[in-house]
């Protein structure tokens, strides 16, 4: 699959639900959102059929997201279905890890090979303030990371959204972990959408993050672990892990975009922060085929996003990041 700018599109992020068991301050309002009605969600069989048809066009990599994907019932069953689709070479999961102690082993057995885990603080009390959930959820997250390691997931990537005055004083602490454990900590710039604009002053650019990491010692660019994302990676001398930065605002990486997103209700979103979507659920339920709709989406995929700090105008109409799983 190639879009109108010649970029090869071989990666699909699939949001299986818009619900989440946390309320991280940058991602979802505390009161939640108006959830997609159950009957409007794509079934596991429908998701699998869309993937099967797109795999015939060149899709080879999938990441399951949410909301929080593990709150949807029996996610390992979907993984088993997707892993059996010819042409799918890589199947990964993004999660907050709260439910991984229960699901890590079944997910691994079903076909997930890699996990990205959201963790925005190493402090139990601070977790409550960021995620708006009791500290026992923090304990479950750490247990989930341990369960992921025990189940054999590799590489394990830790995603940390850095916010000034909220958790930026932990940058060095997170980076220090990579000197002891084979984790790949990725610091992410805050991405403005409709319901998190109150955090505008909390934005920290990636270069500032890296300067704080360099205080630990020599930091050199490296290729980084396998994956499909836009992170730039660095390593301290002798460290088993890496430090990465993801820079949607300070360094636009749209020229390398290789992905589209399937929303929980069946819209093929061609840019995370673009307003362009193509309905796949309707054609699938009416005719059984999504090929024409996918081809149209590729032909109309925009060249770049226009995300702007302090404004929701470039966010593609998103109220919250949880709507599309990032």
Task: Please give a structural write-up.
The protein has 326 residues and is of the alpha/beta class. The chain has one domain (11-323): Alpha-Beta Barrel (TIM Barrel), CATH 3.20.20.70. The chain contains 9 helices and 12 strands. A 12-stranded mixed beta sheet has the order 7-8-9-6-5-4-3-2-1-10-11-12. α1 (44-55) packs parallel to α2 (75-83), α3 (100-110) packs parallel to α5 (135-151) and α4 packs across α5.
Characteristics:
TIM Barrel; alpha/beta; 12 strands; 326 residues; twelve-stranded mixed beta sheet; 9 helices
Instruction: Characterize the overall form.
Output: globular
Query: Percent of residues in helical segments?
Result: 25-40%
First-residue to last-residue Cα separation? 22 Å
Secondary-structure element sequence?
EHEHEHEHHEHEHEEEEEEHH
* CATH top level class name: Alpha Beta
Number of strands: 12
Unreliable runs: none
Label the structural class.
alpha/beta
The major β-sheet equals:
12 strands, mixed
How many distinct folded domains?
Answer: 1
CATH superfamily: Aldolase class I
How much strand content do the residues show? 15-25%
CATH architecture: Alpha-Beta Barrel
Supply Rg: 19 Å
């Amino acid at each position: 699959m190639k879009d109108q700018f010649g970029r090869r599109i071989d990666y699909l992020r699939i949001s299986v639900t818009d619900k989440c068991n946390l309320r991280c301050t940058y991602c979802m309002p505390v009161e939640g959102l108006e959830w997609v009605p159950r009957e409007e969600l794509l079934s596991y069989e429908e998701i699998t059929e869309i993937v099967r048809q797109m795999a015939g066009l060149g899709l080879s990599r999938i990441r399951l997201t949410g909301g929080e994907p593990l709150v949807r019932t029996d996610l390992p069953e979907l993984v088993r279905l997707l892993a059996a689709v010819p042409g799918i070479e890589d199947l990964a999961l993004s999660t907050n890890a709260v439910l991984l102690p229960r699901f890590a082993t079944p997910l691994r057995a079903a076909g997930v090979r890699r996990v990205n885990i959201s963790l925005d603080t190493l402090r139990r009390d601070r977790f409550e303030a960021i995620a708006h959930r009791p500290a026992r959820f923090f304990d479950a997250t750490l247990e989930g990371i341990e369960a992921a390691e025990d189940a054999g997931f590799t590489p394990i990537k830790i995603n940390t959204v850095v916010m000034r005055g909220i958790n930026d004083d932990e940058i060095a602490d997170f980076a220090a972990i990579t000197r002891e454990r084979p984790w790949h900590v990725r610091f992410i710039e805050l991405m403005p959408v409709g319901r998190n604009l109150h955090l505008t002053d909390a934005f920290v650019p990636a270069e500032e993050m890296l300067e704080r990491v360099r205080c630990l010692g020599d930091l050199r660019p490296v290729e980084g672990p396998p994956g499909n994302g836009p992170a730039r990676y660095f390593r301290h001398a002798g460290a088993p892990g890496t430090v990465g930065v993801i820079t949607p605002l300070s360094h636009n990486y749209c020229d390398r975009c290789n992905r589209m997103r399937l929303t929980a209700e069946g819209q093929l979103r061609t840019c995370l922060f673009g307003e362009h979507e193509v309905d796949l659920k309707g054609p699938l339920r009416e005719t059984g085929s999504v090929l024409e709709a996918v081809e149209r989406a590729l032909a109309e995929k925009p060249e770049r996003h226009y995300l702007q700090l302090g404004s929701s105008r470039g966010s593609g109409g998103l109220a919250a990041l949880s709507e599309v799983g990032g």
